[in-house]
Design a protein that fits this description.
Chain C: InterPro entries: 4Fe4S_Fe-S-bd, 4Fe4S_Fe_S_CS, Helical_ferredxn. The structure holds three protein chains of three kinds. By secondary structure, chain A is an alpha/beta fold. Chain A has helices spanning 33-42, 82-88, 108-111, 125-136, 138-141, 162-168, 194-201, 216-229, 270-275; strands at residues 7-16, 23-30, 48-53, 57-62, 73-78, 95-102, 115-121, 147-153, 175-180, 190-191, 208-213, 236-239, 255-256, 259-260, 267-269. The two termini of chain A are 32 Å apart. Chain B folds into two domains: 4-110 and 149-289, no CATH class; 111-148, no CATH class. Chain B is built from ten helices and eight strands. Classes of the chains: A alpha/beta, B alpha/beta, C alpha/beta. The structure holds iron/sulfur cluster (SF4) (5 copies) and FE2/S2 (inorganic) cluster (FES).
């Protein structure tokens, strides 16, 4: 086994997620059956992969699909630089390299039996989408209590997974709150920033865990609100982003104190983060 | 060498009279053959200052990172004063914020050469005129200072500080300062194959720690070409191509800018020779443009200057 | 295990035999003093030196630049790592201790780094017991000893005109089992020497609760003070036998994905694509280096991540001495504690 060896994967489908074309989802399938088997044996929502295009390098992306959706693996990629530009140019049929799943992912066992409030913003919502898809799956739904989703985007054009999320409004086994920053014609959901929406709609903290993933600024303002609402630090989960290279706890780059975000994370409870040196 | 008491007194004065906020000089290091650069913030700390041959660094290299409005005193030898001039010309330093305390220079001792020359654990070194008295565990050795001087200092053409605000001590009479680097002459005296052999042997020992760059007063780019990722401008590895590219481009970027202080070589843990290349490029600048780095407060280095009415057009 | 011996003047003959089977790599004269070199002739090796090599032998297991894959049409092919087995000879115990420390990173169960693993498995390490530590050495302050065994297969000790060997692993004993057994008096002498060497070594600092002291200073201006003259170069970390950070880079022209050493002392190391840098200044970077070695390693495996080899002390271009940082940190934190 070679930790740095990417698996060959093929682009199956490319989805334009947003009106400004900065976000695309890529569904990749495995070239080798053994890779596929190994991947799904390990995969757990909240994990990420190192996505590589030779010559441009590798970068970590959260996995945006649930295992049952497979045999493909979905990544949602925002076009912000040279590697992501190259990824955005990929067409169905193209071959790429992927390493993963990496990291700890969300602690499904600990979340079982509890109510969940899932709070996300921007493209970091991708792993929360995977988590939600996992929970909503008919065989899994009964394992969890009430489910509340708060999802914010700058404007409606930047909302991810639109059709699917629209269909969540019709379901009786979850509550979905979508928010955009400023009012728009035809938008009949929330208007405002995620932390404010959370303040309004969050469920009671009793037997509830909160999971927050979003741009650093959103996370920074949401965490204190959850604490104010009475969520204990060990029931607030968040996923960190750091510059990563190896993704497997070897290259040293992503450490916060003695923890490596790639290996010990990316998901940490607020309690764990409070115990680490503030080197973020 | 400056009278150390006079130097400390001056530092103490400029700090207590608030002429400067801080003074940069050297203090004794943790090993007998090293000094450590030190920022003196309070007048009473000025007693920490030393003035000996173990100040390996070019202190001007430590100025770039200071707060913008800080008034800073710098104890300058010749190369430091020339670097500061060059940096001022390149608009990297504001001369108004600097108070330059010139000291006579006797050249910097190459501590590695000294340790090899005595071959034993050095407990103390004292300077005695032209000699060094070295105390070893169970022996004492005396050797000529000149024997273990760093090559940059042996070849130095302008050891005396220029453009300073005050001079501590007296400048010695200087005789027979070489006008051209003998190391360059020796290098040029060889044929192309031999020159390439020297260059590649030196460059390829490089471990790309960039101490040379960080120790150099004239390497101040916020993003060095080797750190540029998209696109990558040179091979990232410690391969032949990677190390040679680093050495060539680094030197080239120093054309007409290197002040020949040798701080890069003294910082290099692999003891790689580099100054012969930048010195050679500087000689070209002299011959072709009559330009000498740090010679005055106005002339831009020819390869770093840009003028709208340049004689040659970029494109016809 | 038993002690073997060979006269000093017979040793080159033995090494000549080893050279046939192994890449025998030992300290040898270099332009900048002493460096490890794969020798073709025993006369090149220099054992029992007053100083250590500048470049640490970790590079034989984690080369500074290493090809991870060749890439063709987007397919990543790991290179065959077929090497003649290496015999590292005359390694100081601080450096073998570093192998042992790095094994915990690169040979972690189920997460082995194939490249390190392969090179490590293909090698034999003979350490040289240190009876003359230098002024910059401080192994006994960080959990090591001048005759420490960690990370070596065999340790050799010089007693006037004989070398005495002690094997700690099976492959180590296999190498020397044909040598004559050392007599009881010799063994006694070796043991005595080991004891006195450790006892005579002065302590550079008191390491009690060092981790806690450092954590207490995390937000303190202390780091700004100690890093004030740091150049932000790679000397202290590249020469350090226990630093292992690396970067992964695609070299398009070579058609290779490679890894190169990298260091937390470089500004660009932690620079994120967004422009955010979690360690934006030299104070934060110096704190990372020192805390990784003396606090985070303790958190992970309860050992210091510094072996006291002194390379960073000797070679820092501005003489920032990690021993002084540690002592100053102890004093500062104690003072803070007292003020509470
Ligand atoms: S290149 Fe070397 S000799 Fe020239 S100014 Fe820089 S440090 Fe001094
Ligand atoms: S200091 Fe020496 S080893 Fe380091 S990059 Fe410069 S030339 Fe190379
Ligand atoms: S930190 Fe310094 S003394 Fe410690 S192992 Fe590394 S180089 Fe050696
Ligand atoms: S001290 Fe810095 S370079 Fe060394 S291993 Fe730790 S993080 Fe990496
Ligand atoms: S070697 Fe010295 S100057 Fe260079 S990064 Fe380390 S502490 Fe700073
Ligand atoms: S990305 Fe290499 S250690 Fe985390």
């Amino acid at each position: 086994m070679n930790l740095y060896q990417p698996m060959p994967m093929r682009v199956e489908r490319v989805i334009n997620e947003t009106s400004d074309l900065t976000l695309k989802s890529f569904e990749l399938t495995f070239e080798n059956k053994t890779d596929q088997k190994a991947f799904f044996e390990k995969y757990n929502p909240g994990q990420f992969c190192q996505f590589s295009v030779f010559g441009k390098g590798e970068a970590p992306f959260g996995i945006a699909s649930a295992a049952w959706e497979g045999p493909f693996v979905r990544f949602t990629v925002q076009n912000v630089g040279s590697l992501t530009q190259t990824i955005h140019n990929l067409q169905p049929g193209d071959l790429v390299g992927v390493r993963g799943p990496l990291g700890n992912g969300f602690p499904l066992d600990k979340l079982k039996g509890r109510n969940l409030v899932i709070i996300g913003g921007g493209c970091a919502f991708s792993t929360l989408y995977a988590l939600t898809k996992h929970i909503m799956y008919k065989e899994h739904r009964k394992d969890y209590g009430q489910l509340t989703i708060v999802y914010g985007a700058r404007n409606s054009g930047l909302c991810l997974y639109k059709a699917d999320i629209e269909s969540w409004y019709d379901r009786s086994d979850m509550v979905i709150h979508q928010a955009i920053d400023v009012p728009e014609e035809g938008w009949d959901h929330h208007v405002g920033y995620v932390p404010d929406v959370v303040k309004k709609v969050a469920p009671a903290p009793k037997n509830t865990s909160a999971i927050v993933c979003g741009p650093p600024i959103m996370t920074k303002f949401t965490l204190p609100i959850l604490s104010e609402l009475g969520f204990p630090p060990k029931e607030i989960y968040t996923s960190l982003e750091k510059r990563m290279k190896c993704g497997v706890g070897k290259c040293g780059r992503c450490n916060i104190g003695s923890k490596y975000v790639c290996k010990d994370g990316p998901v940490f409870t607020l309690a764990e983060l409070n115990d680490l040196p503030q080197d973020i | 060498m400056a009278n150390i008491d006079a130097l400390r007194q001056e530092v103490s004065r400029v700090l207590s009279e608030k002429i400067v906020d801080v003074v940069l000089g050297f203090e004794a290091g943790s090993l007998p053959t090293r000094n450590q650069p030190v920022f003196i913030h309070k007048a009473k700390e000025s007693k920490r200052l030393v003035d000996n041959g173990f100040g390996s660094n070019n202190l001007a290299a430590l100025l770039a990172q200071r707060p913008k409005d800080e008034k800073i005193g710098v104890i300058c030898r010749g190369c430091e004063s020339r670097a500061i001039r060059a940096l001022t010309v390149e608009q990297q330093l504001n001369r108004e914020n600097l108070y330059l305390i010139g000291v006579p220079c006797r050249g910097i001792i190459d501590w590695r050469a000294l340790e090899r020359a005595v071959d034993g654990e050095i407990l103390a070194v004292a300077e005695d005129g032209e000699d060094l008295l070295v105390t070893l565990k169970d022996d004492e050795k005396k050797l000529a200072r000149a024997e273990v001087l760093h090559s940059a200092c042996r070849n130095c053409r302008q050891p005396d500080p220029v453009g300073t605000d005050v001079l501590i001590g007296e400048l010695p009479a200087r005789e027979g300062l070489a006008q051209r680097s003998p190391d360059v002459a020796a290098f040029l005296g060889k044929d192309a194959d031999a020159r390439y052999a020297i260059f590649s042997e030196e460059a390829e020992r490089c471990i790309r720690c960039y101490a040379c760059r960080e120790a150099c007063p004239m390497c101040y780019c916020t993003e060095c070409f080797v750190d540029h990722i998209t696109p990558r401008w040179s091979e990232s590895m410690v391969s032949k191509g990677g190390t040679q590219a680093w050495h060539i481009i680094r030197a080239f970027h120093q054309t007409g800018r290197c002040v020949s202080c040798g701080a890069c070589e003294r910082a290099c843990p692999m003891e790689i020779k580099m100054e012969y290349i930048t010195d050679r490029l500087n000689e070209d600048m002299q011959d072709m443009y009559g330009f000498e780095v740090g010679a005055n407060d106005s002339d831009q280095p020819p390869f770093a200057a840009f003028s709208l009415d340049d004689r040659n057009r970029f494109k016809e | 295990m038993s002690y073997k011996t060979t006269p000093v003047n017979q040793f080159p003959k033995l090494v000549s035999q080893w050279i046939k089977k192994y890449d025998v790599t030992a300290p040898a004269e270099a332009k900048n003093g002493l460096e490890y070199k794969t020798i073709g002739d025993p006369a090149e090796m220099m054992l029992n030196n007053r100083v250590n090599t500048t470049y640490a032998p970790k590079a034989f297991f984690l080369p500074q630049s290493e090809k991870l894959f060749t890439v063709e049409h987007g397919r990543f092919q790991a290179p065959e790592l077929k090497t003649k087995p290496r015999l590292l000879l005359g390694v100081r115990p601080c450096d073998t201790r570093a192998f042992w420390l790095l094994d915990t990173v690169f040979l972690a169960k189920g997460e082995e780094d194939a490249y390190w693993q392969r090179r490590r498995a293909d090698s034999l390490v003979i350490s040289f017991g240190c009876d003359t530590p230098c002024a910059s050495c401080f192994c006994t302050s960080v959990g090591g000893e001048p005759f420490g065994r960690e990370g070596s297969d065999i340790q050799m000790t010089q007693l006037e005109d004989v070398y005495v060997f002690e094997a700690f692993t099976e492959k180590g004993s296999a190498l020397i089992n044909k040598l004559p057994e050392a007599d009881a008096a010799t063994v006694k002498k070796v043991k005595a020497l080991q004891k006195t060497s450790a006892a005579e070594m002065p302590k550079a600092f008191d390491n009690t609760n060092l981790r806690d002291h450092l954590y207490a200073l995390f937000e303190d201006d202390f780091w700004k003070e100690v890093a004030e003259t740091c150049l932000g170069c790679g000397v202290c970390t590249y020469l350090c036998p226990t630093c292992y950070c690396f970067d992964i880079v695609d070299e398009v022209q070579r058609g290779e994905r490679v890894r190169n050493w990298d260091t937390c002392m470089f500004r660009v190391y932690s620079q994120e694509a967004s422009g955010h840098n979690p360690r934006p200044n030299k104070a934060a970077r110096t704190r990372q280096r020192v805390m990784h070695k003396y606090a985070y390693w303790i958190d992970s495996i309860n050992e210091f991540g510094c072996t006291g080899c002194g390379r960073c002390v000797v070679n820092c271009p501005v003489n920032i001495d990690i021993r002084e940082i540690v002592s100053a940190a102890q004093a500062r934190s104690a003072k803070m504690e007292a003020a509470k």
